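in:
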């Protein structure tokens, strides 16, 4: 699943609609895309569902029995600034102005265009997740913390296997960390028994350090191919820092 599509899987949506046919179509559409979907069939039910479930985004029809979409929105605005997207069969300026006064995030004219709704939801989800501190930016793309942790874990495991295949010894520990436009991979405990023995003589330190650096430099393209299986951006190896005293190597990749 593309990272930006998976954003919606982190969102809880309340959908309020009284027309059965439209409701069925939208249920089929939304259930596949959002993390959790709550349904109500008029503004009164929608208000009660909001108070009980506290969704991240509300999508509501405008004209409904018992309580319409604007009346529901006014009541919700007394207790929350949750984004509300109105769907309406009318492109009426007066109605739209009233919606703006109530603090409606956006509106979509029926019949609902799936691509338009997806884009509105995506932009709204980005805003919601940023406000909650659950969204991170890398270059001009966005990903959730869950996505980031998952990618870091996959890269960590893949690079650990790569090192073991090349040296015959897997790292004692390895960490991957994405921040801003940098991917850092910290590798701990990779020195072989022979290397540790050689390090007892100071004259061998520069040779072992050089060999470690060459290992990563010579296999830069292979490491990039491994990492690109999990990361959607292009990268290049920026620096290699080898600390033999702590048996630690820090690889820094630039994301661009």
């Amino acid at each position: 699943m593309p990272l930006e599509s998976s954003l919606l899987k982190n969102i809880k949506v309340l959908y309020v609609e009284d027309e059965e046919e439209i409701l069925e179509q939208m249920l089929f559409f939304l259930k596949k895309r959002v993390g959790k979907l709550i349904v109500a069939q008029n503004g009164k039910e929608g208000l009660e569902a909001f108070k009980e479930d506290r969704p991240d985004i509300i999508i509501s029809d405008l004209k409904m029995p018992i309580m319409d979409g604007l009346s529901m929105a006014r009541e919700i605005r007394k207790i929350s600034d949750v984004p509300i997207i109105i769907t309406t069969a009318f492109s009426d300026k007066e109605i739209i102005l009233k919606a703006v006064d109530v603090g409606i995030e956006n509106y979509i004219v029926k019949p609902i265009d799936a691509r338009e709704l997806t884009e509105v939801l995506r932009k709204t989800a980005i805003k919601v997740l940023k406000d909650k501190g659950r969204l991170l930016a890398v270059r001009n793309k966005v990903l959730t913390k869950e996505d980031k942790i998952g990618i870091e874990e996959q890269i960590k495991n893949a690079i650990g296997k790569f090192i073991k295949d090349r040296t015959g010894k897997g790292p004692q520990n390895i960490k991957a960390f994405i921040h801003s436009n940098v991917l850092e991979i910290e590798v701990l405990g990779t020195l072989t028994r022979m290397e540790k023995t050689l390090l007892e003589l100071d004259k061998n330190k520069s040779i072992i350090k050089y060999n470690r650096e060459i290992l990563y430099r010579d296999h830069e393209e292979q490491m990039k191919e491994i990492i690109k299986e999990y990361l959607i951006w292009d990268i290049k190896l920026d620096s290699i820092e080898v600390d033999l005293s702590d048996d630690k190597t820090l690889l820094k990749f630039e994301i661009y």
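note: The domain at 3-133 is CATH 3.40.50.2300 (Rossmann fold).
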